[in-house]
Structures are given as structure tokens and as C-alpha cells.
Specification:
8-stranded mixed beta sheet; 8 strands; alpha/beta; 19 helices; single chain; 484 residues
Length: 484
């Protein structure tokens, strides 16, 4: 227990372990909303600094002993872990368990991979401990003033944390909290994973738009993005991008021009792309966004290659409005793919995800928050069984309106030699999705030719498989039919 704190003997409503930036700001947010909060950090000096710094005078109690920390909590005890994903989460759960009793609640608020949350949910359930895996988005500012919170896990725990979570969460324009129960097991962290994958896509699309604006000779990028933020592209990421274009370095030049073009990543976008591959779903835009970061990382190879090749001499012929429409259409594709992935996972895990509620949770507080998400919420409210956003009447109209400039921008970029991995893959996916007959019939014929993998026929019912002895030298025995 931290000495000298005036709240040293109070019974606390919730405890939080891990006082890095997100943890500290969530605690301050909880205290601002009237909750008594216990805090613990493995490095006790950080606890001291926090209690004697930004937490001073607030209803926050610091502890140096984990048993005392747990003992201060009201029953059922609610403990939130804000530590590095992976082993540190398991280590703290193991440290807490000897001090807990049945019905106590452990909340993992970090960026954990959803299979880990599934495992922890099942393991703790056997011990009588209620587990919540809560995806939290919004960064430092969101944690302090209102994040988007995506809780999943043991539904018995939800009534005990609902009031706290919804009070500290961001609020949508109509006052609804950007937090609601997602589903059992790893559902919360799964939805957060897809959120982060979409975030990768949004950021890469904005980077490609920026690149196109540069090559087209546009000058006042801050003003262009500010204007975009007043229309369908209204979003947090567009807003901060406008601010980035206005930030000067100490010498008065644009700071952005001095930042190295090598992107980092912490894995959540990659998790989303891998999960889509495992499920056999064409999450092409997020996959390309991940690969674009990987390509940026091989800077030295790119510099060497640039010495061997010269770009085309074609002059770029597209304006900011056309680029905005290409960006908007591509964004629709990204979200359509993301919700397609969540729908498939929901069916497999029987999570019964409510996609309108998810869109609402992303409407405020989180990194991908945007006006556009309100339209997604409306689409799923009107048709909860909607197969894809791309067949919702509103989005059909929006994509159709953007098609001509979208195609023009992608073709002009190609003629200029400007890399547009996400713009172009979004358009390619759209054209594939709207095409009733793809050339996969030839692919199936090839597979059957060299491997007797069989094929279905247009003139026969689905589910009947056939094999042809293409050369007259092969046999009639075919391979077993399955999809990995």
C-alpha cells in the first residue's frame, strides 16, 4: 500500500494492474466517473510516481502487495490487466488465482490474440473465475476521455462491469455508449483484432491517397484533407492526417517530409490476415495493407532497385475529388470484407455477433471512428442477416457513384507507376465479387488434370463431384474432395 494516501482505507470498486500509458489513463477515467480504483504495478516505483503525480487527490489507491491489492476490492472482485499481451497476462493470472474466490472477475484489457482469450476463458471457467477479454481502442486520448470498449468472455461477468465500462466509454452522437457485450469466449478480442485490421487498411488507403495527391501536383494537402473531413470521409484518421500536414519542424519545414518511410507494426493486422486465410475468406485489402508495411521495411532494397528502373513518363490526370471517391469506395470494400470475416467467425464460434452494435461501438472513441460507421449500423439494423455491405441499398448507391473516378484513379496510378496496393486490390475484389462467372472453372480443370482433384458441373446439382481422364492415359480414381 502506498503510504500517505488519504484514500488508503477505502474499499475499491475495481482494480487495475499495469500502469503504462493506457493503464494510467483508464484509471484516471474511472476515478473521474466516481469509482474508487486500486492500482498495482510490478515495478512499485511506477505506482509511487503515479499516486504522487497525476492520481494525487483522486479516489485511487496504490498497492505494492498483490494480496492487499485484491483484498481491497469489493466482491465480486473486479481486476483489470493492462499488461503486455502473451505470457505476462498468464503470469499475472497465476499470481492472482491464490487470492481469488469463485465469482471473482479477471479482465484482460490488452491487445491479446483471441485464441489466448478463448483458452483463458475456458481455463478460468473451470476454476469458477469469470474472465472478460475486452478489446479497447482509442489510444492514450481515448483511454483518458472515452475509449471504444469491446468486452467478451463469460457473460455472467457482464452485469458486474457493465456500468463501469459504459460510463467510461466514448459516447456516440445520440449519447449511446461505445461499449456493449460482444459474445462468449474470445469474441471481444476477435472484434478488436478485426478493428485493428481495418485500421491497417484505412491508414494504407490514406497513404495511397496522399501519394496520388503529391504526384498530381496538389499543394495544400492540409486543406484538402480538412475539406474531405466535412463529407463522407469524415473520420478521426482523416482529421489527424490534416493536422499532420500542418505540423512544422523546428526549421519551419514540414515535419512529415523528414520522417523515414519505414512502417512499424505490432501484429494485429497480420493476425487478421492470417485468420482470413485460415477461414478461406478474401480479405484482400487488409492483407495488402500488411504487405505494404512489410515492403516499406526493406528500405535499402528499394533504394537499390530504384537505381535500376525509371518510372513511366505518363502525366497523372486525376483531381482531388476523384481521389476522394476512390478512397471512399475502397474504404467501403475494406469494411465489407471485415464484417464478412466477423460473420464467418460468429457462425463458427456461435458468438451471435450483433454487427449493428459493433458499428456503434466503433462510432466513437476508437481509431477508426467515423461518420461512415453510422451507415453500417443502419444497414445491419434494417437487415440483421445482411450477407454483405455491398448488397445493402445505401452502399450499392455509394459504390456505383464512385465507380468511374475509382477506375480512372487506379488506371492513372498504374500508368504513372505509383504503387496502389489497396486501391487496386479493392477494385479487383469488387469486380470479382460482382462477377457471376469467374475463370475458376479453368483452375478446377487444371487441378483435376494434374491431381485428379475433381470438379463440380454447371449442369449438375452442387455437391456432386466429377473426374475426367484428360489424357486417356490416367485412371478413373480421383483424389478425395475437400477444401483446406
Amino acid at each position: 500500500m502506498v503510504d500517505g494516501d488519504i484514500f488508503i482505507f477505502m474499499e475499491t470498486d475495481i482494480g487495475l494492474i499495469g500502469l503504462a500509458v493506457m493503464g494510467q489513463n483508464l484509471v484516471l477515467n474511472m476515478a473521474d466517473h466516481g469509482y474508487n480504483v486500486a492500482v498495482f504495478n510490478r515495478t512499485s516505483t511506477k505506482t509511487d510516481e503515479f499516486i504522487n503525480g497525476s492520481a494525487k487527490g483522486k479516489t485511487i489507491v496504490g498497492f505494492k502487495d498483490l494480496k492487499e491489492f485484491v483484498g481491497s476490492l469489493k466482491r465480486p472482485r473486479r481486476m483489470m490487466l493492462m499488461v503486455k499481451a502473451g505470457e505476462p497476462v498468464d503470469e499475472f493470472i497465476d499470481l492472482l488465482l491464490p487470492h481469488l474466490e469463485k465469482g471473482d472477475i479477471i479482465i484482460d484489457g490488452g491487445n491479446s490474440h483471441f485464441p489466448d482469450s478463448e483458452r483463458r476463458y475456458k481455463s478460468l471457467k473451470e476454476k469458477g473465475i469469470l474472465f472478460i477479454g475486452a478489446g479497447i481502442s482509442g489510444g492514450e486520448e481515448g483511454a483518458r476521455h472515452g475509449p471504444s470498449i469491446m468486452p467478451g468472455g463469460n457473460s455472467e461477468a457482464w452485469p458486474h462491469v457493465k456500468e463501469i465500462f459504459q460510463s467510461i466509454a466514448a459516447k456516440s452522437d445520440d449519447g449511446e455508449p461505445c461499449c456493449d457485450w460482444v459474445g462468449e469466449g474470445g469474441a471481444g478480442h476477435y472484434v478488436k483484432m478485426v478493428h485493428n485490421g481495418i485500421e491497417y487498411g484505412d491508414m494504407q488507403l490514406i497513404c495511397e491517397a496522399y501519394n496520388l495527391l503529391q504526384v498530381s501536383g496538389q499543394k495544400d494537402l492540409a486543406q484538402i484533407f480538412s475539406d474531405w473531413n466535412k463529407g463522407p470521409l469524415d473520420s478521426y484518421l482523416i482529421e489527424i492526417t490534416a493536422q499532420i500536414f500542418g505540423k512544422k519542424d523546428e526549421d519551419g519545414t514540414l515535419l512529415l517530409d523528414k520522417i523515414l518511410d519505414v512502417a512499424g507494426q505490432k501484429g494485429t493486422g497480420k493476425w487478421t490476415a492470417i485468420d482470413a486465410l485460415d477461414r478461406g475468406l478474401p480479405l484482400t485489402l487488409i492483407g495488402e495493407a500488411v504487405f505494404a508495411r512489410c515492403l516499406s521495411a526493406i528500405k535499402e532494397e528499394r533504394i537499390e532497385a530504384s537505381n535500376h528502373y525509371k518510372g513511366p513518363s505518363h502525366t497523372f490526370a486525376a483531381d482531388a475529388d476523384q481521389i476522394a471517391k476512390a478512397l471512399y469506395a475502397s474504404k467501403i470494400i475494406s469494411y465489407a470484407q471485415g464484417f464478412m470475416l466477423m460473420r464467418t467467425a460468429s457462425e463458427e464460434y456461435k458468438w451471435n455477433l450483433h454487427f449493428g452494435s459493433i458499428a456503434l461501438m466503433w462510432r466513437g472513441g476508437c481509431i477508426i471512428r467515423s461518420k461512415f460507421l453510422g451507415k453500417i449500423k443502419q444497414a445491419y439494423e434494417q437487415n440483421p442477416k445482411l450477407s454483405s455491405l455491398l448488397v445493402d441499398p445505401f452502399f450499392v448507391g455509394e459504390v456505383t457513384n464512385c465507380l468511374e473516378p475509382w477506375r480512372h484513379v487506379v488506371s492513372q496510378g498504374s500508368l504513372m507507376g505509383v504503387p496502389l496496393p489497396c486501391f487496386s486490390t479493392a477494385l479487383s475484389f469488387f469486380d470479382g465479387y460482382r462477377t457471376a462467372n469467374l475463370p475458376a472453372n479453368l483452375l478446377q480443370a487444371q487441378r483435376d488434370f494434374f491431381g485428379a482433384h475433381t470438379y463440380e458441373r454447371k449442369d449438375k446439382p452442387r455437391g456432386q463431384f466429377f473426374h475426367t481422364n484428360w489424357t486417356g492415359k490416367g485412371g478413373d480414381i480421383s483424389s478425395s474432395t475437400y477444401n483446406a
